C-alpha cells in the first residue's frame, strides 16, 4: 500500500514507497487532495531506525538525521515550481530540461526555532541564495494541550512574493506549525499554496490540524507515525528532536 499523495495540478508526480501498516494514515486523511507527500528513499528505513533508536548517541543522531534532512530538503526544493528549458550537452546535443530557482528572490526558507534550524540549514545548503526567516516558537510543556508560545519572528518584507519552505523536524499536535503559518499567511500575506511545510516525522493529528485550517499547504514528511501519547509526543517517534540534535539531554 502507498500513502504518498500530492495535488497533481502544479507539481509532477513523485515516486511512492510502501510503509509499514502501523504508519498508515487514518482513512479520513487518505485523500489524494490532502497535499501530503512522503518521498521515496531506499535509505530511509535504515536512517529512521538509527534516529528512532533510544540507544543512538546524540552525536550519531545528528549524523543520521542530517542525511535525512538533506534528502527532505532536496525533495522540498524539487517541488518549487520550475520551467522548461533547452540546453546543449558536451556531446553537442540539445537536451530538454527544467530550470528552477534561478531567480534570487524566489525562495524563502523559514525556520521554526529551535529545531527548525537544522532543516533550514539543509535547505540553505541546497539553495544558498534563499532568504531566511526565523520564528521562535516553544511548546508550553506545562500546559495540557502543549500550546505553542510565540517569542519572536523576523520575516522578509517581500515574503509574499516568494515561495516558502517552512521547516520544523516534528509535526505533533500541529500547534507550532499553525502558529508559524498564521505569521506567514496573515502577517506576511503569503498565499497558502505557495508554502511547503517540511518535517522529519508527522503525527496524523498534526497533519489534520494543519490541513483543516490550510488545506492548500503542502506537507513533505519522511514518516507519518501512529499518533501522540498522553504528553503529546509522537509515537513511535524519536523523542525530542531539538534536544537530541543540540545535545541538550
Ligand atoms: C518541538 C518541535 C516542534 C514542536 C512540535 O519544538 O520542533 O516545533 O515541538 O510540536 P507541536 O506540533 O505539538 O507544536 P519544541 O517546542 O520542543 O522546541 P525546540 O525546537 O527547542 O526543541
Ligand atoms: N517535539 C518533539 O521534538 N518531539 C515530539 O514527539 C513532539 C514534539
Automatic annotation (TrEMBL):
Pathway: Pyrimidine metabolism; UMP biosynthesis via salvage pathway; UMP from uracil: step 1/1. CDD domains: PRTases_typeI. This is uracil phosphoribosyltransferase. GO terms for molecular function: GTP binding; uracil phosphoribosyltransferase activity. Its cofactor is Mg(2+). GO terms for biological process: pyrimidine-containing compound salvage. Its EC number is 2.4.2.9. NCBIfam families: PRK00129.1 (NF001097). It is an enzyme of class 2 (transferase). InterPro entries: PRTase-like (IPR029057), PRTase_dom (IPR000836). Pfam families: UPRTase. Keywords: Allosteric enzyme, Glycosyltransferase, GTP-binding, Nucleotide-binding, Transferase. Belongs to the UPRTase family. The keyword Lipoprotein does not apply. Residues 47-248 form the Phosphoribosyltransferase domain.
Amino acid at each position: 500500500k502507498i500513502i504518498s499523495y500530492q495535488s497533481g495540478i502544479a507539481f509532477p508526480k513523485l515516486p511512492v514507497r510502501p510503509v509499514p501498516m502501523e504508519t498508515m494514515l487514518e482513512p479520513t486523511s487518505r485523500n489524494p487532495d490532502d497535499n501530503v507527500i512522503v518521498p521515496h528513499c531506499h535509505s530511509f528505513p535504515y536512517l529512521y531506525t538509527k534516529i528512532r533508536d533510544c540507544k543512538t548517541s546524540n552525536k550519531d543522531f545528528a549524523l543520521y538525521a542530517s542525511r535525512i534532512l538533506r534528502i527532505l530538503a532536496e525533495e522540498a526544493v524539487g517541488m518549487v515550481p520550475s520551467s522548461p528549458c533547452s540546453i546543449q550537452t558536451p556531446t553537442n546535443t540539445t537536451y530538454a530540461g527544467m530550470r528552477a530557482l534561478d531567480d534570487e528572490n524566489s525562495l524563502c526558507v523559514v525556520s521554526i526555532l529551535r529545531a527548525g534550524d537544522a532543516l533550514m540549514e539543509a535547505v540553505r545548503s541546497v539553495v544558498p541564495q534563499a532568504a531566511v526567516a526565523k520564528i521562535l516558537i516553544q511548546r508550553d510543556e506545562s500546559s495540557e494541550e502543549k500550546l505553542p508560545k510565540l517569542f519572536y519572528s523576523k520575516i522578509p518584507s517581500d515574503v509574499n512574493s516568494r515561495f516558502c519552505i517552512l521547516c520544523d523536524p516534528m509535526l505533533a499536535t500541529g500547534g507550532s506549525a499553525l502558529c508559524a503559518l498564521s505569521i506567514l499567511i496573515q502577517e506576511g500575506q503569503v498565499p497558502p499554496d505557495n508554502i511547503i511545510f517540511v518535517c522529519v516525522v508527522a503525527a496524523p493529528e498534526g497533519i489534520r490540524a494543519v490541513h483543516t485550517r490550510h488545506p492548500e499547504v503542502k506537507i513533505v514528511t519522511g514518516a507519518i507515525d501512529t499518533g501522540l501519547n498522553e504528553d503529546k509526543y509522537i509515537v513511535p517517534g524519536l523523542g525530542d528532536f531539538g534536544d537530541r540534535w543540540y545535545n541538550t539531554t
